[in-house]
């Protein structure tokens, strides 16, 4: 039991440090830290606005743990990119609205600081929503353009069966003919 705990702890720490160095990990850590600072500022001035910071900090922590432990590949019943996109989009909109309301009300210094930090974190959540937008991440693969990959056989010339519009079908000889069209480009 002690050996398995000892072996799993460095692996967990390595996974945490490796994920926290990625762009998504840095964004989630920044979101958690900003939400904590805004929570402290709102708690010092107006506790009514602090619920947004608490909810977003908890959600950012949950997504950080899910991505850090690679659970998004193991739990496939949930579409994680869309869930993360909607979380960040809604957070950006709510922080923008809350910050504007707080700055318009004009309160003490901690309330103004929370409003300004709310505008900054709104941009941070908006950028996170932009980079996690699932349709932006899908890459289009072009169709093969090499003639060797096409439906025609390899060779110097291209041939095809064509219809002869000048010769009616009911006359002897038929109207379908095979001709060599020329070099393949």
TrEMBL record:
Residue ranges spanning the membrane: these are 26-45, 51-73, 85-104, 110-130
- Keywords associated with the record: Membrane, Transmembrane, Transmembrane helix
As for subcellular location, the record says:
Membrane
Cite the MARVEL domain residue spans from the record: 19-137
Lineage top rank: taxon? Eukaryota
Give the way it sits in the membrane: Multi-pass membrane protein
The principal localisation class reads membrane
User: Known PROSITE patterns for this protein?
Assistant: MARVEL (PS51225)
The entry's function note states: May play a role in cell differentiation in the intestinal epithelium.
Q: What is this protein called?
A: Proteolipid protein 2
State the species of origin: Felis catus
Taxonomy, top ranks, is: Eukaryota, Metazoa, Chordata, Craniata, Vertebrata
Q: Which gene encodes it?
A: PLP2
């Amino acid at each position: 039991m002690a050996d398995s705990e000892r072996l799993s702890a460095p692996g967990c720490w390595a996974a945490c440090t490796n994920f926290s160095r990625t762009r998504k990990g840095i964004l989630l850590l920044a979101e958690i830290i900003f939400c904590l600072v805004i929570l402290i500022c709102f708690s010092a001035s107006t506790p009514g606005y602090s619920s947004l910071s608490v909810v977003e900090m908890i959600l950012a922590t949950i997504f950080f743990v899910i991505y850090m432990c690679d659970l998004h590949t193991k739990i496939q019943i949930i579409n994680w990119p869309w869930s993360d996109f909607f979380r960040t989009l809604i957070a950006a909109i709510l922080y923008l609205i809350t910050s504007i309301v707080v700055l318009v009300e004009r309160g003490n210094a901690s309330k103004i600081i929370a409003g300004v930090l709310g505008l900054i974190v709104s941009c941070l959540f908006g950028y996170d929503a932009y980079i996690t937008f699932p349709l932006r991440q899908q890459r289009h693969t072009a169709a093969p353009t090499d003639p060797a990959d096409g439906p025609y056989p390899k060779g110097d010339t291209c041939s095809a069966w064509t219809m002869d519009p000048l010769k009616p079908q009911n006359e002897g000889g038929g109207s379908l003919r095979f001709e060599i069209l020329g070099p393949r480009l």
